[in-house]
Amino acid sequence: MDAILKTEGLTKQFGAMTALDNVSLTCQAGHIVGLLGPNGSGKTTLLKLVNGLLAPTSGRVLIDGLAPSPSTKARVSYLPDHTYFDNWMKVRDCVGLFADFYADFDRTKATDMLKALGIDTSMTFRTLSKGTREKVQLALVMSRQAQLYLLDEPIGGVDPAARDFILDTIIKNYNENGTVVISTHLIADVEKVLDDVIFLNAGRVMQISSADELRERTGKSVDEVFREAFRC
Amino acid sequence: MLSKLIKYEFKATGRIFLLTYVVVVALAGVNAAMLAVRPPSNSGLEVLYAGVSTVTGLLYGIAAFAAFLLTIVIVVVRFYRMLGDEGYLWFTLPVTPTQQIFGKLIPATVWTIVTTIVTLASVGLVTFRANWPSLLGSTWRSLASQGFNPGVWLVCGLVFILFSLLVNVMLFYAAIAWGPNLIKSSRLGGSVVAYIIIYVALEVINLVGVLVMVLMFANTFKATQTIPSVLTSADVAAINHAGAVFGTYFGIEYLILAVIGFFITRHFIGRKLNLS
């Protein structure tokens, strides 16, 4: 299979602090990849670099062979760890915005998903709770037929009861020919859906492996391996 | 894609501007009405009338000033916010940095022009008794009779104001885009410092231009002091010539500065974007 995402010697420094240090990795098309690491390990920085929201200090990012650009942004569906819609916007305005800018956006799918999540599309963003705002953004991001989904802590801000529902939403709705990269430190919740795992610590790649191969090799779950690797 | 960006910018800012215009026009209407119902002397209402008209006049003045201030604030804040949390939306859309800039610049320019028109119209409403069409017509004819071409001066003046507006907005954008790279620990602080640097540079360039013009046209400026009593046709020709050179120089300078501001902005949001 071809690589949908590739980084080569990717480094990002913020002043004296190195957030990512010489990261080289490859994600194959059609896989669900767990980008796993403790807080501050560089997961968000990596995803922002892939989206062109940060300029690398050195190294490069390639998405389907191309550097971040409007062309790659049309193929990447990104869920940041921020809510980004303006407070005056109604949920249906947000749906309209995605439909206007993304050719691969499925408006019907988004409307159905929002309905399933119990979200009233006439509500303004100002009136929604933080969790509901995140669900709206997730529904919009997952309603695209993207080649690459980059989900930054999609279950980080919701209660445990909602996590399975959100993971279900992701698994049922992503483009099956596409790749999903899920950044999280809540491994136990996502382990069951992962094909591959990337362990990141202090800006460096510690391990890249298939989830099955890791479990076979260590005789432990990914969550157990993670807890051992990052024990304080 | 640019038209869609412009559409969303107008949607985001439209409510605030329209509300502001309604307030300005309504207060202008109140002031016009106050002037129309001035009580006759010795009616006993003079003090009350003076008090109310002073308050309404003051409110109108504040509203008209606030409309301009609000326009500048919104133009700056909209771009500033694009480089904050909202950037996670706008910079992940499949649009180019150039489209992002024009998606903000075009609505900002349109709103500034509309604010100016609405404010001027509101002044016209307040002073409706002044018979502006007649006053402007007689001034126009007077200038034309002396050998000036008011139409050319008016068009050149409007173009000059438009360029001046563009350069100011672009330099705000350039400062906001450059700021986070100038002071990495404070986006706001960096933007303010960047604007001060840009503003000082702009003023130095303007000062040099003005000095050159004053030296070039010293005699013409002396001639303008005699207006309108003994202005000869040679004086009028000299003033027209000075105006043409002056306008062309600053028009070109502003256009160049706006283009420089555009490229600085594009460089930083295209190649040096560091969304916090």
What does this structure look like?
Chain A is of the alpha/beta class and about 230 residues long. Chain A is about 35% helix and about 25% strand. Chain A has helices at about 45-50, 70-75, 90-100, 105-115, 130-140, 160-175, 185-190, 210-220, 220-230; strands at about 5-15, 15-30, 30-35, 60-65, 75-80, 150, 180-185, 195-200, 205-210. In chain A, the strands form 2 sheets. A 6-stranded mixed sheet of chain A has the order 5-6-7-3-8-9, with helices on both faces. Chain A has a 3-stranded antiparallel sheet with strand order 2-1-4, covered by helices on one side. The mean pLDDT of chain A is about 90. Chain B is an all-alpha fold and about 280 residues long. Chain B is built from 9 helices and no strands. Chain B starts with a helix and ends in a 6-residue tail after the last helix. The model of chain B has no long low-confidence stretch (mean pLDDT about 85). Classes of the chains: A alpha/beta (about 230), B mainly alpha (about 280). The interface between A and B is medium-sized, with 26 and 25 residues.
Offer a quick outline of the entry.
By secondary structure, chain A is an alpha/beta fold. In chain A, 34% of the residues lie in helices and 27% in strands. In chain A, strand 8 and strand 9 form a beta hairpin.
